[in-house]
């Protein structure tokens, strides 16, 4: 597994890098077959250290975790604990999906935009109804089954996931509803 360990405005020593590689390698090796790479970023938020980790698996799925603590090693350990919990929860599914899938998840290119939020304190009408684009980025849309999409959304702890449905090749969305259930939007099913 390839590791990319870095610090934002923070010096990461050899001892911490070795600790991260050993601990994360053990955790991921126990629950997932053939992880490809891991990105771990340490940063400082006021008086706390923040550790964010992303591990990409050979199936194309990714897992993410984030933790904070006043000590840098404790921040990583908390992050690793969260990742281990996610991987343990989905171990059977990860291995089952990997056996069915002969090729890694196919990714399609797409543009992603961040729009400026509205300021409710302004009483005046906006000059234009066009939203202000704050940032524009490239993103990837994975080609997954609905079950894999739900699992990826839960592993990444995101409220919504856009994906290409492997069954009908259409763009679909899964999202977490307010009642705790998962919603699935499949525009192709209505045509």
TrEMBL record:
UniProt subcellular location: Cytoplasm
GO MF assignments: ribosomal small subunit binding
GO BP terms, alphabetized: negative regulation of translational elongation
Annotated source species: Litoreibacter roseus
Family: Belongs to the HPF/YfiA ribosome-associated protein family. Long HPF subfamily.
Record-annotated Sigma 54 modulation/S30EA ribosomal protein C-terminal domain positions: 130-183
Subunit structure: Interacts with 100S ribosomes. Associates exclusively with 100S ribosomes, which are dimers of 70S ribosomes.
PANTHER family: 30S RIBOSOMAL PROTEIN
Signal peptide from the UniProt entry: none
Protein name as catalogued: Ribosome hibernation promoting factor
Keywords, in A-Z order: Cytoplasm, Translation regulation
Gene3D superfamilies: Ribosome hibernation promotion factor-like (3.30.160.100), Sigma 54 modulation/S30EA ribosomal protein, C-terminal domain (3.30.505.50)
Pfam family, one: Ribosomal_S30AE
UniProt GO cellular component terms: cytosolic small ribosomal subunit
Chain's role: Required for dimerization of active 70S ribosomes into 100S ribosomes in stationary phase; 100S ribosomes are translationally inactive and sometimes present during exponential growth.
């Amino acid at each position: 597994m390839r590791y990319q360990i870095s610090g934002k405005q923070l010096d990461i020593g050899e001892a911490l890098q070795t600790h991260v590689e050993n601990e994360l390698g053990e955790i991921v090796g126990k629950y997932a077959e053939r992880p490809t790479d891991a990105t771990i970023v340490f940063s400082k938020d006021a008086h706390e250290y923040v550790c964010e980790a992303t591990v990409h698996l050979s199936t194309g799925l990714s897992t993410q975790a984030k933790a904070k603590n006043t000590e840098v090693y404790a921040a990583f350990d908390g992050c690793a604990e969260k990742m281990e919990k996610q991987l343990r929860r989905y171990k059977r599914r990860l291995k089952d999906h990997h056996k069915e899938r002969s090729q890694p998840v196919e990714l399609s290119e797409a543009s992603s935009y961040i729009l400026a939020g509205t300021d409710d304190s302004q009483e005046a009408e906006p000059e234009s109804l066009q939203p202000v684009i704050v940032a524009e980025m490239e993103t990837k849309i994975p080609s997954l089954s609905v079950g894999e999409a739900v699992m990826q959304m839960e592993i990444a702890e995101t409220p919504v996931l856009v994906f290409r449905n492997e069954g009908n090749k259409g763009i679909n969305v899964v999202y977490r509803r307010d009642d705790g259930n998962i919603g699935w939007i499949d525009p192709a099913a209505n045509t």
